[in-house]
Amino acid sequence: MLLQGKKGIIFGALNDQSIAWKVAERAKAEGAEIVLTNAPVALRMGAIKELGTQLDAPVIAADATNEEHLEKLFNTATEHFGGKIDFVLHSIGMSLNVRKGRTYTDLDYGFFQKTLDISAVSFHKVLQTAWKLDAVNEWGSILALSYIAAQRTFPDYNDMADAKALLESIARTFGYHFANEKKVRVNTISQSPTMTTAGSGVKGFQEFFDYADKMSPLGNASAESCADFCLTLFSDHTRMITMQNLYHDGGFSSMGMSPALLPAIE
Length: 266
Hints:
The protein is α/β, with parallel strands linked by helices. Helix content is 44%, strand content 16%. It has a 7-stranded parallel sheet with strand order 3-2-1-4-5-6-7, with helices on both faces.
């Protein structure tokens, strides 16, 4: 019961492929009370209401790019819990340029702004809303999911790479303020390629997934193992970890070349 007595908000569960979905299931199993949230359109498209029923968790519609929605979400969640929250997971990302097949050298800048707003600036809005409402308990933990394209070039990842770089910067900068004044941790997890609805929408994702799996000594980290890692960072056992981008990728981020790839090259 790693999270016994803790309360949290989980953004981004769409269906049972979602990392956020796995985190919600594991958090509940480890004793936490949770509130689930996603954008209104995602609530209509996905199966999050079924997850809410399964976990006895309220499902609250909220567009994470909308400050009024976020304020209502946090207020409703704290009223539901009867007090402040202990953890938040931001598992949100979307690129219209990727969906529409626009290459990085031919971006639609309106789409680009939406990519940044949905995939990164929304994290700042979540943090700022929680800050202004003083909604998180001391030693609470706030996480966002990232990817190594924030540091290295993966051409088909497109403008999502820029969004992830911004996301990680927001975690560091806001993480300082949250730690210094409220003793709250803010971190990002750089996860392996994962077979989620969002991930598999990237061009050439299967080849990309297979490459990373061969390059990583432990293979790709699954959504289930990512959920386990998230739980450790929500727990009291990681109180002194903040402002970090933590690689959860089977060793991929430390590799230069893997012998497992040589046969394919030869």
